[in-house]
Amino acid sequence: MYGHAEAFEDLAEYEQLALMSKAQAELNYAVQWSYNQIGVAMTDSLTASKKWCRFDDEFKAKHGYRLPADPYWIAPPQGSIIPLWHRGGAPNYQPKPMISKHVQDPVKAWKRQNKHKEMTLIPTTVLIPLQNASISPAVVLKKEPEVTVQEIEDSWEDEVEAAQTSRKLIDKKTMAIYFCSNGTVAERLARKAHKRMAALQDSLNITLSPRIDCLDKLTSQDITANKIILIVASSTGKGEVPTNGAAFLRLKASTSMVSTRFSVFGNGDSRYSGSFNGAATQIYRRMQNLGGRPLIGKVFRGDTAVESIPYSALKAWCDSLQSKLISANGAPQVNNGAEE
Q: Which SS3 state, helix, strand or coil, does residue 251 take?
């Protein structure tokens, strides 16, 4: 059973560790499978750590400081594979009252700090006396070269080409991808969609934003007629919009939002039939109320009951978007078999 060894204890330590790691992984798969059979959801330390880090980052962006909490119970001994492990101690965390005297006089420390900030470099002006100032420089009149007819025609062609290029840039639309989720699946799907669209942006005549953002970052100024908005939305609770997308529902309509093209991909679970993709549906309707025009005439629904991370549905969504955008640009439409 153990090859050259008669018993597990006879193996080298690295071989014991390899076998124990394999057994632990198989046990995790077995427990996960059994929980799924009875409809009980499980999470893991890696996912929980990612959730916390994103929630903490969003909290700091909104309030200016990190949460006064100790989340390190979700950072297990394996350490380096957990994002939270690399953050160090929470700066605002103090689990018990602490009253102590300052090591330095706080007033003197404050004065030293402000004095240091006020120190600036003063630019020095150096006056250099002119030598032989009475001698005026000679003025040389240069004869302009004659312009030929061919040069004039070439300049006209350059102007026409520049105008055509400028027109293409004006017609070129910008695409941005947003997500909202209390978990990590919607963000992963949004990154996958971003990678797919990045490979297609030249053929689709679009400029893709360099990164994805949570839906709360989308403002009225970002929604213009020259913009294509793609949103990946997970639901929380009974079909509600997650906290990092709730502010979007409160956006006020403006004239700049009219005719903005958009599409929404929902990440939901059909086992909750009453609230299946409820958040995506709310976001879709809100975009319509703000004057947006859907690229696809409905919410494109992913179902985690069918696929734990609905990559197949996401691919079909991207294929459908590609087909619609190619058609909108006047190019021959590609038949990729995607359903709308």
A: coil
Instruction: Confirm whether pTM is higher than 0.70.
Output: no
- Cβ 313 vs Cβ 302: under 8 Å: yes
Phi, psi of 261, rounded to the nearest 5 degrees: -85, 140
Dump strand ranges (E) for 183-324.
206-208, 213-214, 227-234, 261-268, 293-294, 300-303
* pLDDT (0 to 100) of residue 166: 44
d(CA 69, CA 54): 14
Amino acid at the residue 32: Q
Q: Which of 301, 313, 286 is nearest to 235 (CA)?
A: 301
Distance CA 243, CA 247 (A): 8
How far is Cα 265 from Cα 213, in angstroms, rounded to an integer?
15
Which amino acid, one-letter code, is at 315? K
Q: Please state, in angstroms and rounded to a whole number, the distance separating the CA atoms of residues 137 and 133.
A: 10
Residue 189's pLDDT is what?
95
Percent of the chain with pLDDT strictly greater than 90: 26
